[in-house]
Amino acid sequence: MKEAFIDVRAWRQFIAVAEELHFGRAAIRLHMTQPPLTQAIAQMERSLGVVLFDRTRRRVALTPAGEALLPDVRDFLERAQALPVRARAAAAGEVGRVRLAFVSTIGFERLPEWVRDFRVLCPQVALELVEATGDVQRELFSRGELDAGLMLHSPGFAPPELARLAVAEEPLVLALPASHPLALAPRLHLPEVLAEPLVIFPRRIVPSLHDAVFALYHAAGRVPVVAQEAIQMQTIVNLVWGGLGVAWVPESVTQFRRDGVVYRAADAFGPAFAGRAGAKVPKANPGPLLPVCETSLVWPAALNNPALARFIDFVRERSAAAR
Asked: Hey, which bits of 19-94 come out as E strands?
């Protein structure tokens, strides 16, 4: 059986009669005459196949069906009245959904702050978060299952098929066991460090950064001895604690405190490692610089999600303020 369609005006008429319990007063409230109102309610009852009002010459009363229906109709009309405002809010990006993937490094500090503050700014935008490495994010994008991602890469090596906004840049630091002799050395010497077994992420996860780490070894005439690969940065640090080797990790990973693991920054190597990519190195201290990693917010070039556009603007402002 096909359900009858009842328009919003008819439901407003039902509410008026249900609240006034008098067709004459309800008609005055609706700025209409009584006969058309009486006919409209009768037509509604025929369409529904349900009697909503008991009528006598002396009184009008809701039937049990009418009583049961009244709260739902009130709720429906309230939501219908709010639709224009909601439509305008959705067009402005104040209402909607953003499916956001992120790498673990951005999740140590910046992302939690952004999520907290964006939810205060746009409480009706649902941020659906999923932790995923760069290769997984690209698969999700290809299937249309992702709106944006926070992705780690070497500077300028974000996926070319995606629009991007650089949000953070940081050097790599060395993670090594606290019991390792190099952990207490006042200065780290490149040949000693590069001779150590290496714990590193698979190349498919972050190809550009993986290649940058290997280039550091090759520039020094070394071939990395990869002892173990691991996907998550926390896992890499835990494997370092287990004595499997040393690891080059983004500086933000130092916020992951693991007893038995120490982090040594670039200045531990002296002037040759004191800068970032493109920095001037004194001629008396020639040598390669530690690779730099960049985190970008990426999204499909065809941006048709107002809520996502709102989030991108928010991240752009926050990133600019942090520099």
From this structure: 53-55, 60-62
